[in-house]
Protein backbone atom coordinates (compact mmCIF):
# COMPACT_ATOMS: atom_id res chain seq x y z
CA UNK A 1 0.00 0.00 0.00
CA UNK A 2 1.25 3.47 -0.89
CA UNK A 3 2.24 5.68 2.01
CA UNK A 4 1.84 9.47 2.15
CA UNK A 5 5.10 11.21 1.25
CA UNK A 6 4.34 14.39 3.20
CA UNK A 7 3.20 17.85 2.27
CA UNK A 8 4.04 18.49 -1.38
CA UNK A 9 3.99 22.29 -0.90
CA UNK A 10 4.50 23.08 2.77
CA UNK A 11 5.24 26.78 2.17
CA UNK A 12 2.51 28.81 0.49
CA UNK A 13 3.03 31.96 -1.58
CA UNK A 14 2.12 35.35 -0.17
CA UNK A 15 -1.06 35.76 -2.25
CA UNK A 16 -2.94 32.85 -0.70
CA UNK A 17 -3.92 31.55 2.73
CA UNK A 18 -3.34 28.26 4.64
CA UNK A 19 -6.21 25.77 4.66
CA UNK A 20 -7.61 26.95 1.34
CA UNK A 21 -5.54 24.94 -1.16
CA UNK A 22 -7.17 22.22 -3.31
CA UNK A 23 -7.60 20.66 -6.78
CA UNK A 24 -3.93 19.78 -7.49
CA UNK A 25 -2.65 18.55 -10.86
CA UNK A 26 0.93 17.88 -11.97
CA UNK A 27 2.63 18.39 -15.34
CA UNK A 28 5.96 16.71 -16.14
CA UNK A 29 7.93 19.09 -18.35
CA UNK A 30 10.47 18.28 -21.08
CA UNK A 31 13.36 19.32 -18.82
CA UNK A 32 12.47 16.60 -16.27
CA UNK A 33 10.86 19.13 -13.96
CA UNK A 34 7.37 19.01 -12.48
CA UNK A 35 4.80 21.80 -12.19
CA UNK A 36 1.99 21.63 -9.64
CA UNK A 37 -1.14 23.61 -10.51
CA UNK A 38 -3.57 24.18 -7.66
CA UNK A 39 -6.57 26.29 -6.68
CA UNK A 40 -6.52 28.63 -3.69
CA UNK A 41 -8.04 31.85 -2.39
CA UNK A 42 -6.53 35.06 -3.70
CA UNK A 43 -6.49 37.17 -0.54
CA UNK A 44 -6.36 40.38 -2.55
CA UNK A 45 -9.58 39.83 -4.54
CA UNK A 46 -11.33 37.25 -2.34
CA UNK A 47 -11.72 35.03 -5.42
CA UNK A 48 -10.42 31.53 -6.06
CA UNK A 49 -7.49 31.46 -8.47
CA UNK A 50 -4.86 29.04 -9.82
CA UNK A 51 -1.25 28.94 -8.67
CA UNK A 52 1.78 27.16 -10.13
CA UNK A 53 4.70 25.65 -8.19
CA UNK A 54 7.80 23.86 -9.51
CA UNK A 55 9.87 20.93 -8.22
CA UNK A 56 12.54 18.57 -9.50
CA UNK A 57 10.61 15.53 -8.19
CA UNK A 58 6.91 14.59 -8.28
CA UNK A 59 7.20 14.21 -4.50
CA UNK A 60 8.18 17.86 -4.12
CA UNK A 61 8.86 20.04 -2.39
CA UNK A 62 7.01 22.28 -4.83
CA UNK A 63 7.91 25.96 -4.58
CA UNK A 64 5.74 28.89 -5.63
CA UNK A 65 7.54 32.14 -4.89
CA UNK A 66 5.11 34.36 -6.80
CA UNK A 67 3.30 37.38 -5.42
CA UNK A 68 0.23 36.78 -7.58
CA UNK A 69 -1.76 33.79 -8.88
CA UNK A 70 -0.64 32.10 -12.09
CA UNK A 71 -4.14 32.34 -13.65
CA UNK A 72 -6.85 34.54 -12.15
CA UNK A 73 -9.72 35.74 -14.35
CA UNK A 74 -10.93 38.27 -11.80
CA UNK A 75 -13.35 39.88 -14.24
CA UNK A 76 -14.96 36.45 -14.75
CA UNK A 77 -15.25 35.40 -11.10
CA UNK A 78 -11.79 33.85 -10.66
CA UNK A 79 -10.26 30.61 -11.95
CA UNK A 80 -10.32 27.00 -10.69
CA UNK A 81 -9.89 23.36 -11.83
CA UNK A 82 -6.56 23.55 -13.68
CA UNK A 83 -5.65 20.45 -15.71
CA UNK A 84 -2.55 20.08 -17.94
CA UNK A 85 -2.54 18.53 -21.40
CA UNK A 86 0.49 17.73 -23.57
CA UNK A 87 -0.08 17.48 -27.33
CA UNK A 88 1.61 14.83 -29.47
CA UNK A 89 4.25 17.36 -30.55
CA UNK A 90 5.18 17.99 -26.90
CA UNK A 91 3.44 21.38 -26.56
CA UNK A 92 1.90 21.78 -23.09
CA UNK A 93 -1.41 23.46 -22.39
CA UNK A 94 -3.39 24.28 -19.27
CA UNK A 95 -7.17 23.90 -19.13
CA UNK A 96 -9.24 25.68 -16.49
CA UNK A 97 -12.68 27.07 -15.62
CA UNK A 98 -13.64 30.63 -14.88
CA UNK A 99 -15.46 30.48 -11.53
CA UNK A 100 -18.36 32.60 -12.71
CA UNK A 101 -21.02 30.74 -10.75
CA UNK A 102 -19.71 32.58 -7.69
CA UNK A 103 -21.09 35.83 -9.09
CA UNK A 104 -23.85 35.15 -11.67
CA UNK A 105 -21.38 35.07 -14.57
CA UNK A 106 -21.55 32.39 -17.28
CA UNK A 107 -19.02 29.61 -16.66
CA UNK A 108 -16.71 28.65 -19.51
CA UNK A 109 -13.91 26.14 -20.01
CA UNK A 110 -10.63 27.61 -21.25
CA UNK A 111 -7.26 26.51 -22.58
CA UNK A 112 -3.93 28.33 -22.84
CA UNK A 113 -0.55 27.25 -24.14
CA UNK A 114 2.33 26.95 -21.67
CA UNK A 115 6.06 27.45 -22.11
CA UNK A 116 8.22 24.33 -22.24
CA UNK A 117 8.96 24.56 -18.51
CA UNK A 118 5.26 24.99 -17.70
CA UNK A 119 5.79 28.23 -15.75
CA UNK A 120 4.78 30.86 -18.33
CA UNK A 121 1.48 31.40 -20.13
CA UNK A 122 1.85 31.77 -23.91
CA UNK A 123 -0.58 33.87 -25.94
CA UNK A 124 -4.17 34.40 -24.86
CA UNK A 125 -6.60 32.09 -23.09
CA UNK A 126 -9.16 30.59 -25.50
CA UNK A 127 -12.71 29.63 -24.47
CA UNK A 128 -13.62 26.10 -25.54
CA UNK A 129 -17.13 25.60 -24.10
CA UNK A 130 -19.73 27.36 -21.99
CA UNK A 131 -22.90 26.34 -20.17
CA UNK A 132 -25.64 25.76 -22.77
CA UNK A 133 -27.51 22.49 -22.08
CA UNK A 134 -30.39 21.85 -19.66
CA UNK A 135 -28.63 18.87 -18.05
CA UNK A 136 -25.60 21.06 -17.26
CA UNK A 137 -27.66 23.24 -14.93
CA UNK A 138 -25.95 26.47 -13.85
CA UNK A 139 -22.31 25.55 -14.58
CA UNK A 140 -19.68 23.45 -16.27
CA UNK A 141 -16.27 22.76 -14.72
CA UNK A 142 -13.47 20.23 -14.23
CA UNK A 143 -12.09 20.17 -17.81
CA UNK A 144 -9.59 17.54 -18.94
CA UNK A 145 -8.40 16.76 -22.48
CA UNK A 146 -7.20 13.54 -24.07
CA UNK A 147 -6.61 12.06 -27.52
CA UNK A 148 -8.31 8.90 -28.71
CA UNK A 149 -8.33 7.77 -32.30
CA UNK A 150 -7.80 10.77 -34.56
CA UNK A 151 -9.56 13.29 -32.30
CA UNK A 152 -9.11 15.44 -29.24
CA UNK A 153 -11.75 14.87 -26.58
CA UNK A 154 -12.73 17.22 -23.78
CA UNK A 155 -14.27 15.74 -20.63
CA UNK A 156 -16.02 18.06 -18.21
CA UNK A 157 -18.38 18.04 -15.23
CA UNK A 158 -21.66 19.90 -14.88
CA UNK A 159 -24.48 20.84 -12.51
CA UNK A 160 -24.15 20.82 -8.69
CA UNK A 161 -21.15 18.79 -7.46
CA UNK A 162 -22.88 18.24 -4.10
CA UNK A 163 -25.85 16.42 -5.65
CA UNK A 164 -26.82 13.29 -7.57
CA UNK A 165 -27.38 15.47 -10.66
CA UNK A 166 -23.65 16.03 -11.15
CA UNK A 167 -22.56 14.35 -14.41
CA UNK A 168 -19.78 14.16 -16.98
CA UNK A 169 -20.06 15.64 -20.45
CA UNK A 170 -18.01 15.02 -23.60
CA UNK A 171 -16.99 17.27 -26.50
CA UNK A 172 -14.95 16.54 -29.64
CA UNK A 173 -12.28 19.15 -30.46
CA UNK A 174 -10.35 19.84 -33.65
CA UNK A 175 -7.21 20.84 -31.73
CA UNK A 176 -6.06 21.65 -28.17
CA UNK A 177 -7.41 25.18 -28.73
CA UNK A 178 -10.71 24.08 -30.30
CA UNK A 179 -13.16 24.49 -31.73
CA UNK A 180 -15.06 21.90 -29.67
CA UNK A 181 -18.48 20.37 -30.29
CA UNK A 182 -20.51 18.88 -27.45
CA UNK A 183 -21.92 15.38 -27.67
CA UNK A 184 -25.45 14.80 -26.40
CA UNK A 185 -25.21 14.45 -22.66
CA UNK A 186 -24.65 13.58 -20.08
CA UNK A 187 -21.96 11.18 -21.29
CA UNK A 188 -21.58 9.61 -17.84
CA UNK A 189 -24.33 9.90 -15.21
CA UNK A 190 -25.58 7.82 -12.27
CA UNK A 191 -24.83 4.11 -12.58
CA UNK A 192 -24.94 1.19 -10.16
CA UNK A 193 -24.17 2.44 -6.67
CA UNK A 194 -22.41 5.57 -7.98
CA UNK A 195 -24.29 8.88 -7.93
CA UNK A 196 -23.20 12.25 -9.28
CA UNK A 197 -19.97 11.22 -11.09
CA UNK A 198 -17.51 13.99 -11.94
CA UNK A 199 -13.90 15.09 -12.11
CA UNK A 200 -13.05 12.73 -14.98
CA UNK A 201 -9.38 12.40 -16.02
CA UNK A 202 -7.67 9.75 -18.14
CA UNK A 203 -4.28 8.05 -17.90
CA UNK A 204 -2.28 5.29 -19.60
CA UNK A 205 -0.91 2.48 -17.42
CA UNK A 206 2.48 0.75 -17.73
CA UNK A 207 0.97 -1.79 -20.15
CA UNK A 208 -0.36 0.89 -22.46
CA UNK A 209 -4.00 0.50 -21.41
CA UNK A 210 -6.20 3.60 -21.19
CA UNK A 211 -8.20 4.30 -18.05
CA UNK A 212 -10.56 6.98 -16.80
CA UNK A 213 -10.65 8.12 -13.18
CA UNK A 214 -13.64 9.90 -11.65
CA UNK A 215 -15.31 10.37 -8.28
CA UNK A 216 -18.92 9.73 -7.23
CA UNK A 217 -21.15 9.53 -4.17
CA UNK A 218 -21.38 5.92 -2.99
CA UNK A 219 -23.94 5.89 -0.17
CA UNK A 220 -27.65 6.62 0.06
CA UNK A 221 -26.64 9.99 1.53
CA UNK A 222 -25.72 12.54 -1.11
CA UNK A 223 -23.74 15.64 -0.12
CA UNK A 224 -21.20 16.17 2.62
CA UNK A 225 -23.68 18.04 4.80
CA UNK A 226 -25.82 14.86 5.06
CA UNK A 227 -22.87 12.62 5.89
CA UNK A 228 -22.37 11.42 2.32
CA UNK A 229 -19.07 10.01 1.07
CA UNK A 230 -17.38 10.04 -2.31
CA UNK A 231 -15.05 7.38 -3.68
CA UNK A 232 -12.59 7.24 -6.57
CA UNK A 233 -13.41 4.95 -9.52
CA UNK A 234 -11.22 3.66 -12.38
CA UNK A 235 -12.70 2.17 -15.56
CA UNK A 236 -11.16 1.20 -18.92
CA UNK A 237 -11.49 3.90 -21.59
CA UNK A 238 -12.02 2.63 -25.14
CA UNK A 239 -13.14 3.73 -28.59
CA UNK A 240 -16.34 2.33 -30.06
CA UNK A 241 -17.37 3.43 -33.56
CA UNK A 242 -14.93 6.30 -33.22
CA UNK A 243 -16.41 7.54 -29.91
CA UNK A 244 -14.92 7.29 -26.39
CA UNK A 245 -16.72 4.86 -24.07
CA UNK A 246 -16.21 4.01 -20.42
CA UNK A 247 -16.22 0.24 -20.83
CA UNK A 248 -19.04 -1.48 -18.97
CA UNK A 249 -20.68 1.81 -17.93
CA UNK A 250 -21.73 3.75 -21.00
CA UNK A 251 -24.85 1.74 -21.78
CA UNK A 252 -25.99 1.88 -18.17
CA UNK A 253 -25.33 5.60 -17.81
CA UNK A 254 -26.93 6.86 -20.98
CA UNK A 255 -29.45 9.62 -20.38
TrEMBL record:
CDD domains (UniProt xref): GH43_ABN-like (cd08999)
Coiled coil: none
Transmembrane segment boundaries: none
BP-aspect Gene Ontology terms: carbohydrate metabolic process
InterPro entries: Glyco_hydro_43, Glyco_hydro_beta-prop_sf, Glycosyl_Hydrlase_43
Alphabetic keyword roster: Glycosidase, Hydrolase
GO molecular function: hydrolase activity, hydrolyzing O-glycosyl compounds
Sequence similarity: Belongs to the glycosyl hydrolase 43 family.
Protein name: Glycoside hydrolase family 43
Organism: Candidatus Neomicrothrix parvicella RN1
Lineage, opening ranks: Bacteria, Bacillati, Actinomycetota, Acidimicrobiia, Acidimicrobiales
